[in-house]
Design brief:
It is a single chain. With 105 residues, the protein is mainly alpha-helical. The protein contains 3 helices and no strands. The protein has helices spanning 2-70, 74-85, 89-104.
């Protein structure tokens, strides 16, 4: 019986080393997994942040356009319509001068 009691404590320290090694491996694996999860969440956060920033910029542009439209006068509207048709002071003067040269001839 003495030999079995002395053999048992000799086996226990090696078992403790193995269990400590396994515990360390689990801790290392858990740390890697947590690190990967944190990195993944960081990337997702950055993507969402970028998307929200783009939406904010679009809304700012829309608001600015609406503000400008509110301040638009009847002459501004007329000018914008003429500009979209290609009518400008330069074109009008050119047309008038071409027309007046026809009458002089």
């Amino acid at each position: 019986m003495n030999s079995s009691t002395t053999a048992l404590p000799a086996d226990l320290p090696s078992f403790n080393l193995i269990s400590e090694s396994l515990a360390f491996d689990f801790k290392d694996t858990d740390m890697k997994r947590l690190s990967m999860e944190i990195e993944k969440e960081k990337v997702e956060y950055m993507e969402k942040s970028k998307h929200l920033q783009e939406q904010l910029n679009e809304l700012k542009t829309e608001i600015e356009a609406l503000k400008l439209k509110e301040r638009e006068t009847a002459l501004d509207i007329l000018h914008n319509e003429n500009a979209s048709r290609g009518n400008s002071k330069h074109n009008t003067i050119k047309k008038v001068s071409e027309g007046s040269s026809l009458y002089l001839a």
